[in-house]
């Protein structure tokens, strides 16, 4: 009897531990999103790979050159490279000779971000780690001859509190196994079982990422990728099962529908409250995710535009994943570094309106354009972030319900301000006349309202 009860108990433990999530979307989608992700609000995306060598046009360089044969890409190759030069010939030039992971982490940490997402493998199939499923098409076999993912993961964990996220492309444009499966209308699954899925297990077990950012379904359904089977393992048995967060790109038709949080489309920013947790992935270079040598200053988003995007995203319940593209030699160019450090300067002052906040009952003010709201449950505070400083010395907030005896209004980084109530709701806040040197920050200012509804 005693032995039987112990055996029963062990079966119960195995059942509750290993089979909490079934390999179905209904079960996978029922998993609560780990709290840290919603609290974090801000992450850094890093697109780096062999495409960083030509650094022309886009990180889709190989496909645009030899898949779609776009004339500008074909001409670029004809004018600058010898006949017979292949995409694989770029790999030995991916040397990363100036790559300093500790310096990268310093830049990322200074931005105020709470997590990073590094491309471990883009659609070109080149892995930035020492993958036994991608020999010799990886960073240890050719080019840098070092495990770049390990370098960044180690520096991140040694020198910061940021969480590690890894991006991984399911499909590869020109992989013969994938092309053969596609020709068979995905009735065969040689590519996912011998390449893509083994890589996913490999990076999770080796690097223990807390964000797994899947991408690139190649128009194949999630059943071809065995996405629900993999995610059930990730949530039940993997070393990061309790903290890992995943996105929604797990096969054709799954985007904005299945997975942990929704990305829906690149640069997704709906401008209204979205109930399901979502992420706006946005690149500082508006035309590319990978580094482009031909980029002009006007192609880069200004800090005002970035903060505006960020504030709107958080107000509507999302996180911002802001992308930089390092150079083939391992540098984060000064304009990217400047934008990230500026984000950090702004968050040092206004972070209480961002981190750990949630959406308020109204997202943007119904009377004054360019005012976005957040709510902090712990502080019982409404935050009104206004993107431009008004010329007439006051800002009207139409939506808060105020009380003459209880409501206090503080300009964050400065002091309490005087205000008068409007009818039937709202208030007019009188702003101080401050010289630039005394302004709490240089872009987008925050009013904290307590004792208001």
What does this structure look like?
- There is one protein chain.
- With 453 residues, the chain is of the alpha/beta class.
- It folds into two domains: 20-353, TIM Barrel, CATH 3.20.20.80; 371-450, Golgi alpha-mannosidase II (Immunoglobulin-like, Sandwich), CATH 2.60.40.1180.
- The protein contains 13 helices and 14 strands.
- It has helices at residues 2-18, 25-28, 35-40, 61-67, 71-80, 101-110, 148-159, 176-183, 190-207, 222-225, 227-236, 303-315, 334-350, and strands spanning 42-46, 115-121, 163-169, 211-215, 245-246, 278-283, 318-324, 371-376, 381-386, 394-397, 408-411, 419-421, 427-430, 445-450.
- A hairpin with a 4-residue loop joins strand 8 (371-376) and strand 9.
- The chain is globular.
Counted up, domains total: 2
Q: Report the CATH C-level class of the largest domain.
A: Alpha Beta
- Please give the alpha-carbon distance between the first and last residues: 61 Å
Strand order of the largest sheet: 5-4-3-2-1-7-6
Q: What portion of residues is helical?
A: 25-40%
Class inferred from helices and paired strands: alpha/beta
Determine Rg (CA atoms, Å).
24 Å
By CATH, the superfamily of the largest domain comes out as Glycosidases
Which segments are poorly predicted (pLDDT under 50) over 5 or more consecutive residues?
A: 1-17
What's the CATH architecture of the largest domain? Answer: Alpha-Beta Barrel
Share of β-strand residues = 15-25%
Give helix and strand order, one letter per element, not per position. HHHEHHHEHEHHEHHEEHEHEEEEEEE
Give the biggest beta sheet.
7 strands, parallel
Number of helices: 13
Tell me the CATH topology of the largest domain.
TIM Barrel
Shape: globular
Average of per-residue pLDDT values: 95
**Strand tally, please?**
14
